[in-house]
Each structure stands twice: as C-alpha cells, then as structure tokens.
Amino acid sequence: MTRLLTTVCTTALLALTLAAPVQAQARDSFKVCWSIYVGWLPWDYGAAEGIVDKWADKYDIDIEVVQINDYIESINQYTAGQFDGCTMTNMDALTIPAAGGVDSTALIVGDFSNGNDGIVLKDADKLEAIKGRRVNLVELSVSHYLLARALDSVGLSERDITVVNTADADLVSAFNTPDVTALATWNPLLGTIKESPEANLVFDSSKIPGEIIDLMVVNTDTLKANPALGKALTGAWYEIMGHLNDSGFRQHLANVAATDLDGLRMQLDATRLFDKAEDAVTFTNSPALKDTMQKVAEFSFDHGLLGEGAPDAGFVGVETPAGVYGNNGNIKLRFDPTYMTMAAEGEL
To answer: Which one-letter DSSP state was computed for residue 129?
Structure first.
C-alpha cells in the first residue's frame, strides 16, 4: 500500500480548484476513485460485482468507481474537482484537500491501521535504542507520523534521530544493506522486512490505535446537494462488508492486491476494519477522534504541510461529533456519521 502525505502548495491547489470547480447542484452522475490499500480494495469488488450499481440504481443515480494507481494523484484529482469522492487517510484529507480550501466530508470511516505500520530495528529489540540512529522511511508519510508518535512515547523527539527519506520501492532492499539499522514502513513491505532474522519490530500502529484512519471522503457541497450519493455509497459499502468472510471476496481482493490469501490475511489482521456500521459510528462519535485530529494537525503544521500561510496547527478547522478542533471559521474537514448511522439503523 502507498498512503503518503505530500508537501502541497496551498495556493497552487486553490488555483487548480478554481480552474475546475465542483458545481454544488443536483446531479445524477458521479465519479469516485480509490487506490491500492487493503482497506480500500473492497471498492473494486463492489464495482465488479455490481453492488455499487445496485445501490446507485436504487437512488436513480450513476456512480463510476475508478482505480487510480498513484495514491497522491488520486487525491489531487479529487481536490481539483475531477472526482466527487476519493479514498484517503485522515492525515491526507487534512493536508491536501482541506488545506487546499476544498470543504470535504469523511462519509465512511472504513478502518484504522492496527499493526499495518511499524518500526523495525537491527541489533536491538527496544524502541529506545533508536536514539542516534538514521531512520529510513518515506518522509512526510504516515510512517513519519508513526515515528514521531513512537519517539514521543519514550521521551525522545526527531532531534534524537536522523530521518533518511527513502522511496517505498527501495525500503526492502535498503534494509538488507549493513548501513541501514532503523526503518519505518507499512504492509506489505513491513511483513517482508520482518521475515529477516535481523529485524526486530519495536513499535507499530497498534500502539496508537485509531490514529491512522482510512476514509471515503466526498466533497461537502456535492454531498449537501446530492444526499443520494451519500446514501448509495454508504449502502453499497456495508453490503460489500457483508461479504468479508466469503472465499470469493477474499480471493478477489488478493488478486487485485497482487498477493496470495496468506498475504491478504496478514494485512487484514493488522487492520481494524469497521465492517459493521454501528462500530464505525461509535468510533466517529468518540471524543478520541477530535484528540487524534489535533495530534495530526500539530504534526502537519510542524512539518509545513498546512501551507506557508498557516499561522498555527488549528488553521484548518476539523469538525467532529465531539466538537471542532481548530478554526470554527475555516472548517474544511468534517467527520459526519449521518449516513453511517442510517446504515446502522436500516434506513438506507
């Protein structure tokens, strides 16, 4: 999987958005996109098996589901108005469309990483031994966020280590070189690296549950003008989730992810997938979500990801059921459980 943050020029994104505005009007045709990650693979199954079409037909609309191979490109296209919805992490939702001025709603809270992201050391089995080391990772990614949270847990900071920006495609081979003794990455790369007898997993995302969240995000204005889009996508998602334990479903996901069933199982086991709508609603309604978004915003601000004009971590307001973090006058990211609640109550 590739779930990256990127340093995006806010003014450039705003210009791009203005060049291709999303018209907030009633429509009957929509496009959503997704990219390869275990928590988003089910969208491919739903499209291939006609589940998305079934729910779109129920509400007299059309929904095209498009796979984009480049994750960041998918978010950029969504931000530019080329898609009405897109799969992304909570962090990227904040730092790309929201920071770029595009009001976005987390329609479906699909899962959180519960071990899919981790930190590995050589010659040590305690996280504290990372002090003074060079740490290879994809800079400004969820791995970088994980590292920052891990360091904080043992009284260290990024000043105590040196981040070495390494492309995800190079991480496995890098770990096999003698100079690399510390590394942070995600599955399936993490699983491959852990197979090395030198690898010691010293921290993973199960230690910060609920902080690396995977979402289906839709344009807020489009959703307001077209509630049928929210109903159809949400209804389709939870019907897809009803196939979670079907052998055909799992084989389909494994094929799309270019892995085998054991590889898929490893990734699913390290994912807290909200296959039941009521669980997603409970998670979204929790005050912990607001606290998480504050941590994410502070990390993003410290690393320049909210744009050059952002005066502080609360520059972009994030609305959750427990309250708003940041600027009430600039809310651009919203966690709205309305449609998930409808699914939980059988009202779709």
So the answer is: G
DSSP state of 52: H
Contacts of 317 (CB under 8 A, 6+ apart): 324, 325, 326, 327, 328, 329, 330, 331, 332, 333
Single-letter amino acid, residue 83: F
Does residue 13 surpass a pLDDT of 70?
no
Of 79, 76, 46, the closest CA to residue 64 belongs to 46
What confidence tens digit (pLDDT) does each residue in 153-185 have? 999 999 999 999 998 889 999 999 999 999 999
Of residues 346, 343, 347, the one with CA closest to residue 277: 343
Of 121, 98, 93, which Cα lies nearest the Cα of 108? 93
Half-sphere exposure of 140 (CA within 13 A, CB side): 15
Task: Go through 300-330 and write b for each residue having 16 or more CB atoms within 10 A of its CB, e for each that does not.
Answer: bbebebbbeebeebbbbbbbbbeeebbbeee
pLDDT tens digits, residue range 61-80? 999 999 998 888 999 999 99
d(C-alpha 322, C-alpha 292), whole Å? 12
pLDDT one-digit tens code per residue, 80-118: 999 999 999 999 999 999 999 999 999 999 999 999 999
Per-residue pLDDT of 26-45, as tens digits, reads 999 999 999 988 999 999 99
Over 90: is that where the pLDDT of 258 sits? no
Query: Cα–Cα distance between 210 and 113 in angstroms, integer?
Result: 7
**Residues present in the chain in total:** 348
**Taking CA 78 as the corner, what is the angle to CA 91 and CA 47, rounded to the nearest 5 degrees?**
100
Alpha-carbon distance of 242 to 318, in angstroms, equals 31
Rounded CA separation 138/128 (Å): 21
